[in-house]
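If you are new to this repository, start here. Below is one unmodified record pulled from the training split, so you can see the exact layout before writing a loader.
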Amino acid sequence: MKKISLLLIVALMALGAWAQEIKDGDTFFDGWNYYTAEVRHSGVIHFIDKESDEDFTIQKVDKKKGEYKLIPERQADDPKFGCQWDARVQFISKDNVDCLAFYPEKETISCLIPRVHATREQCEKTQESMQGRELKSIVTDFTINWAYLICMSQDDIERALGILSTRSPLTLLESVNKQLLTYALAHADDESESDGGRFIDDDFDGDTDIVPVYKDMAAWHASSAVDVISGITNNMAVVINGYQPMNLSEVLNRPSLFYGVEGRGYFQEEEEQPEDIESPLVISKEVYEGRELIIRNIHGLTLRGESGAHLVVDAAYANVLSFENCDNIRIENLTLGHAVEKGTCTGGVIYLRGCSDVEIVNCDLYGCGTYGIEALDCNNVKVDNTLIRDCSDGGVNLSYTDDAHFTDCDIVRCGNGDATVTALFSNNMTFDRCRFAENTGSILFWLNKEPVTLNDCEVHYMNELSNKQSLLKGNTKWHKDANPLTPRAIGPK
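And here is the target side for that same chain:
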């Protein structure tokens, strides 16, 4: 054992002598992000994934070949990969090792990001193939990247270290993998929590961290579309920053983030999906000319946007957010819609199937999505202070859904179909202090069971109000005009 330890120490001391230079345009792949190196003055190198906008920056250490330190690109940045600012970063390039190594502590590696000489698509296929390989092959033949590491359970890490303990002498590749796994095992029980047994570091994927601060949930802070999807699990509040719109389609089109990953699914349109599985699933499903996010079997999830948070998809046939067999779901302070040409959508904004206890609060749901909210076989859906606008077929479509309550909502400029609001085989739908204006179609409400109740509402509509008698209560007023609404504070804060 002493001989192995000595060999490891000698190998680590020699790493600096084996390093080469990073060149402008070199590419690195962490299993999710495909970084391109931008070499600047004063030894500064900026790495950026031009699709996800994930980035980090390092600076060369004088007179030390291959040695760098982690520095902020912007003043508001937080350090990444479990490190602090000025943490050691080493570029290693020798003996089948060609990667950046991040050191949060002396001789302790928290993250390896390999340099690659392939396209993003080729890298993602390689990442997929890793999921099906034997663990021994992974730890002896591959540099364990960030995406593979966080999908490892504690048992996986212990087994991998056990495999390496039987090998003598260790190759350079095995040495750096051993350091990485040792750090992961030592920090598996830190304040950072484990999702489904996977190792998750304090600063996973940039600005993401997990702390128990929100309504008895952990809070997962998301600064990219990858972060948003990575944070979806039971009893989690995903807090989404508002720097810029996040395109979920860019992540859904990357199979390495789903294929073979526990709790994730990647399906073609014609493939049969395992709907009988009761465990949580986050699914990327093929639709015509794109892919759709499906969140299934999740209990206790909040998606909460900070000021300016905005999620889009660029697939016209996809719903922006789809929930199936979920409960205790809250969508709050978000703008959601399609980034496609108006009039081309056949997917909606929020789609619910078999869900209960859903809250949609302070949101802006916009078309060209077919409907702002569509619910099938759901119970207890509450929508508060939300704007539904410019949807192509209508504002709301409910089927076999009971106890849907809308409060302080505006539904405007929706529909070219038969109705702005449709409720089929649904009971107890109410609107309190809601407003309707500039909607088109032959009828405002189409019902085939119970009447709808409007309490203290404002309705501007030229055509028929409803095919059934509606209960107009309080100060509800029906104006037979097409006038727009006067502005009021509604939607995201």
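Two things worth knowing about this chain: The first strand starts at residue 27 and ends at 29. Residues 210-479 form a domain with the Pectate Lyase C-like fold (CATH 2.160.20).
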